[in-house]
Amino acid sequence: MTIAKNRKVSPPKSIQKYIGKEWGTWAPGDRIPVDTPLSKCQRDYKEQNVFKYIKKIGGLDRNLFGYATAIRRKSDGQLALVNGQHRINLVKILSPLTTEVPAQIIDVEDEDFDRYGSRFFHQINGGVNKALTNEELFYAQVIAEDPEALAIRQALVKCQLSCGKVNNEVGTLPIKYATFVKCLALGGPATERAVQLLRKGFKSMNEVALHGLVYLLSRKEYEVLGNRSVAVGKHFETWLTQAVPMFHSVTALTFPKYHNAKSWEVGVAYGLVQSFVKHQRNQNLSAIQVGTIKEIYEESVGKDDSGVL
């Protein structure tokens, strides 16, 4: 590998501690300069994505680099990078003395130079080589025994949910990775309880309804609703798992009327509290106060009381 003597690198302080942390072996074969000019079709450079990846990996793993792709004009050998811009910039940040990286080099006739580069870029990014989904990335992280991924997997097991190929067992209900992570960020116990209630009442999952229910149960003012050992918590469970399913499907719990809230989960939580309180009053039973969640909802959308079940 060719070494440069005076390349200056000026990443933010949060990234500087990773400079020089390198391991692994470069792939064999052809090399191109790290300063190879971009083809005309290259996407904009997303610096923050590179910084985020550096923090996640903790340095430069040469084994993960693979190959960049460049086209080479036959008449004069001019190169243009068509794939690998972000990986190369990562190398330039973390290994400032490295001047070349492994690459697949495709020789192209002069008249096809720009056209072939654009076609290659489009096909590799918009064809069979689609970006991995969150679920596919999560599965790979679980296989790699990433601690964070394993913790999320354990939470899925507790909730009897599946996410892509992770915990895809008989009897589990599917959920998207992004939704589940958002729910866990609000609270693991609230997530587990919300899943239990929806499963018991509807035997199915609606992610918008789940997120709103988790949001509600995770708030200190309303966590009592998830406690079946107290009267109001028991009443809430009976209402959600018996009374509501008699007349509505789980999609009714998404409360689309209140999706004008900045965050849908706030609107869903507001709809849940309103509807439960209305039911309790009709049954001459004590309920909880709507006030707090109503104030949160009304902060951005104004007053509206017409969305109850």
What is the topology?
Elements: H1 13-16, E1 22-23, E2 31-33, H2 47-57, E3 60-61, H3 62-65, E4 68-73, E5 79-83, H4 85-94, E6 100-108, H5 113-126, H6 134-143, H7 147-159, E7 161-162, E8 173-174, H8 177-186, H9 188-202, H10 207-218, H11 231-247, H12 264-282, H13 291-301
Parallel strand pairs: 1-3, 4-6, 7-8
Antiparallel strand pairs: 2-6, 4-5
Helix pairs in contact: 2-4, 6-7, 8-9, 8-10, 9-10, 9-11, 10-12, 12-13
Short description:
The chain has 309 residues and is an alpha/beta fold. It is built from 13 helices and 8 strands.
Care to describe what's here?
By secondary structure, the protein is α/β, with parallel strands linked by helices. The chain has three domains: 119 residues, Conserved hypothetical protein from pyrococcus furiosus pfu- 392566-001, ParB domain (Alpha-Beta Complex); 42 residues, no CATH class; 115 residues, no CATH class. Helix content is 49%, strand content 10%. The chain contains 13 helices and eight strands. It has a four-stranded mixed beta sheet with strand order 2-6-4-5, with helices on both faces. Strands 1-3 form a two-stranded parallel ribbon. A two-stranded parallel ribbon has the order 7-8. Helix 2 packs across helix 4, helix 6 crosses helix 7 and helix 9 packs across helix 11. The chain is elongated. The protein starts with 12 loop residues before the first helix and ends in an 8-residue tail after the last helix. The N terminus is likely disordered.
